[in-house]
Design a protein that fits this description.
Length: about 775
């Protein structure tokens, strides 16, 4: 029986090549796209979950309370880990984990900036990062120890055994190699090429020893039977036991979850990368559903061709269940063939997909999970696609069929039309998402940031060798051709890393706790950044008291209640000074968040650190870079010269959105293409069913345009209905997505008009091909049987 069913299924596929090809191609594209997305989703969900202690590994977070608002940070006091592991019995181990640093690593005459982390002694015991050489239990216990990657071992020791060898760091300190890392797992978000003692870093950064300052991240390992909620209750007010004036409450979040759930608002979790995981999972389902609808539509539309087969089988005793099984089997067979093509599509596209998403996805045929996924995808798709056709075909009345009086009920026609509406509704949703995401990304990348990002570059980490001679370096640069102005600032262009509540002014409400961002900078800061001054002046060497004075932005003035702040008194960290300049608001960070109130104070010339900001003359950037490199090497012998353009760096922080924008373009195109495949098949079938009608109309004088309009009208009407249904749904979801940005576009009416017209034109072109072909047919051929 099974052999017979398979033989019949194969004969039907071969007999109806066009419709079989449309079904297989549509399903293959839908399954291939869904499979790619599922591989990406699996990679995202597995990120940071490979650690053996995953269930017990937690990041310590802070909720900071400021006059009715709550800000959430992963930054903690630099001495938290050492203290909390002693005071809270449920915490077995703890480690501060510093942000990624790039010190200069030197071995003999080979040196370069390398990326790594400063961590504490138990770090390797907490996390599942393996060593190729050395002992995890002791490798980070000594303050002068360093664990390096195999890449660094090959680079600096060239095949020699690096264990016990000396490395010079920032041309100041020597450390000893105590371990060599195995290659980091692909599923880790924490990247590094070395691990060094955090305690060594802490001695050089005294500010991190104070309980009122925050910076390094703290990760803890709970005891095996510890209840995270009970630990949360214990640590909530822990900082207040060390600093009675603290406004901080601590809480734990599972380390493995923090990659996906990274956004917080008013003390509550508010999305993160999990939003992209959800969004692309929905897109994968949408595209697969669109492909299944093609199959259902074409199968039910062509049911008249197989009606006699069903009638004869029922007459000779076939049960309805056996007929359902037969048609479901055919559906699964077609799905299996489609799966083979889908795998081929994935294998061809995965290198480009990896390049776009910066992943290392692969189709691992030895992975049992993949086979489970493929089996589930085949069965689910086959059942979804074949369910309605199987039920519909098996319900046909054999008497009616064999009398030749088979006619479709209105309900069957309405169902097919409903599927077309649903299919194109999903496609229009994706087209609108593509337009809105593209426009938002374009808005972000072209928005006036409040400073001139063109022809602006910066050199990071100028404290490494230049902190004492930056003034000489600056003066020498300003005399070189191609250089317009030079300054320095503590923060990079993408993040103002320091903030404080230690700000007061006459008339301030002392009951309020207000947070201000702080960015110590050098002379010519406003000039070099290209910031507009609304009042006052920049820092100047002509004023000896500027070391106590301040620049503020509009947001800071508004928080202080000043309309004209220039000349007003301001005290920060106990230093009383005067506001000498009001800067127009400018962005130094993501457009996801509003501009923060900012205070800029003058950085002492003898302790310059942070970044050097250099504005070049327009059209002379290459000359300027050569001159900067020449002087950098003169003032910083033995240090690598590295720089970054402001506009490039700003664009880099929106990589995720750019990927989403490009993927949405591809998925929208794919969805509309698959929908058009189904529409093409339905139009061909409709034209075939109405061949004699078309012949009669032509004989009676109907023109080609009349016939094309007649055959196209019903389909175009369905697409129009789909657009009207999709518009409000798309508006709701895209408005919700845009709300994640503090600065965003408006949903303009023409986005919807463009999406609707695009869908209509594409559908019209698809249907018109078959309509014109039918309208041009010779009526003699279509009527000769009459």
């Amino acid at each position: 029986m099974l052999k017979n069913y398979l033989k019949i299924a194969w004969r039907n596929l071969w007999k109806n090549k066009t419709f079989s090809l449309i079904n297989i191609l549509g399903l293959a594209l839908g399954m291939g796209c869904s499979l790619l997305i599922m591989l990406w989703v699996q990679d995202e969900v597995k990120m940071d979950r490979f650690h053996a202690n995953d269930a017990r590994l937690f990041s310590v977070m802070e909720n900071q309370f400021y006059s009715g608002t709550i800000s959430t940070f992963s930054a903690t006091p630099g001495v938290l880990a050492e203290a909390i592991v002693k005071d809270i019995p449920e915490i077995e181990m703890a480690s501060q984990v510093l942000w990624q640093e790039e010190p200069v690593i030197m071995v003999k005459d080979v040196f370069d900036n390398e990326k790594g982390r400063y961590v504490q002694g138990d770090f390797l015991n907490m996390f599942s990062f393996e060593l190729a050489q050395g002992d995890k239990a002791t490798a980070l216990k000594r303050p002068d120890g360093v664990v390096i990657s195999k890449k660094l071992a090959d680079k600096y020791f060239k095949g020699q055994d690096p264990m016990g060898k000396t490395i010079r760091v920032d041309n100041k300190d020597d450390v000893i190699v105590t371990g060599v890392l195995k290659e980091l797992p692909a599923y880790t978000s924490m990247k590094f090429d070395f691990l060094m003692s955090y305690d060594r870093w802490l001695k050089q950064n005294k500010w991190a020893n104070e309980w009122g300052n925050n910076g390094p991240r703290c990760v803890v390992l709970l005891a095996k039977n510890a209840d995270p909620e009970r630990v949360n209750a214990k640590i909530r007010n822990y900082i207040k036991t060390k600093n009675k004036d603290s406004n901080v409450e601590l809480f734990l979040i599972n380390y493995g979850k923090s990659y996906l759930y990274s956004n917080w608002e008013s003390g509550r979790q508010n999305g993160g990368r999990i939003e992209y995981v959800r969004m692309f999972t929905i897109v994968a389902i949408f595209i697969l559903v669109i492909a299944c609808i093609n199959f259902m539509n074409l199968a039910t539309a062509r049911s008249v061709k197989r009606a006699k087969e069903v009638g004869l089988r029922k007459v000779v005793g076939a049960y309805r269940t056996s007929l359902v099984g037969q048609f479901m089997g055919e559906s699964i067979l077609i799905t299996f063939i489609s799966l083979l093509f889908a795998l081929l599509i994935v294998l061809l596209l995965i290198p480009a997909f990896n390049n776009l998403t910066e992943k290392k996805l692969s189709v691992d045929f030895l992975n049992p999970f993949l086979w489970v996924l493929l089996f589930a995808l085949t069965i689910i798709t086959g059942i979804v696609a074949g369910s309605y056709p199987a039920i519909f075909m098996s319900s046909l009345n054999p008497v009616t069929i064999l009398k030749g009086a088979l006619k479709f009920k209105p309900s069957a026609t309405y169902f097919r039309q409903g599927l077309v509406v649903f299919q194109f509704g999903l496609s229009i949703l994706l087209i609108l998402a593509m337009i809105v995401i593209y426009r938002q990304i374009e808005y972000i990348q072209t928005k006036n940031l409040g400073f001139a990002r063109e022809n602006l570059l910066y050199i990071p980490d100028i404290e490494k060798g230049m902190e004492k001679n930056f003034t000489s370096f600056k003066q020498a640069l300003e005399n070189e051709p191609g250089i317009k102005s030079v300054t320095n600032a503590q923060s990079s262009l993408l993040d103002i890393g320091s903030s404080t509540m230690g700000v007061s002014w006459p008339g301030k409400d002392t009951t309020q706790q207000l947070l201000f961002s702080v960015d110590p900078a050098g002379y010519d800061f406003v000039k070099t950044m290209g910031i507009q001054l609304l009042g006052g002046r920049d820092f100047s060497r002509d004023y000896g008291t500027d070391s106590l004075n301040y620049l503020i932005n509009e947001a800071a003035a508004a928080k202080m209640g000043y309309k004209d702040p220039v000349g007003k008194e301001l005290t920060m960290w106990g230093k009383k000074g005067v506001i000498i300049g009001l800067m127009k608001n400018f962005h130094m960070g993501s457009l996801h968040v509003p501009i923060q109130p900012l205070i800029v104070n003058l950085q002492p010339a003898k302790s310059v650190w942070g970044v050097a900001l250099i504005r070049t003359e327009a059209g002379q950037t290459d000359l300027a870079i050569k001159n900067i490199e020449k002087l950098f090497k003169r003032y910083n012998p033995g240090l690598p010269f590295k720089y970054q353009f402001a506009d490039e760096e700003f664009g880099n922080q929106y990589k995720a959105e750019n990927v989403v924008s490009k993927l949405s373009n591809y998925f929208a195109f794919l969805a509309i293409f698959i929908s058009c495949l189904g529409l093409f098949g339905l139009a061909a079938f409709t034209a075939e069913q109405r061949t004699k009608e078309i012949g009669v109309r032509k004989v009676l004088g109907a023109s080609v345009s009349n016939l094309v309009g007649m055959l196209s009208a019903d389909f175009i009407k369905l697409v129009g209905i789909a657009a009207l249904i999709a518009f409000p749904i798309a508006w709701y979801f895209m408005q919700s997505w845009l709300e994640k940005y503090a600065y965003r576009i408006d949903l303009e009416w023409w986005y919807f008009l463009v999406a609707g017209i695009a869908a209509l034109i594409i559908a019209l072109l698809t249907v018109s091909f078959q309509a014109i072909k039918a309208a041009l047919m010779n009526p003699v051929k279509s009527l000769k049987s009459e």
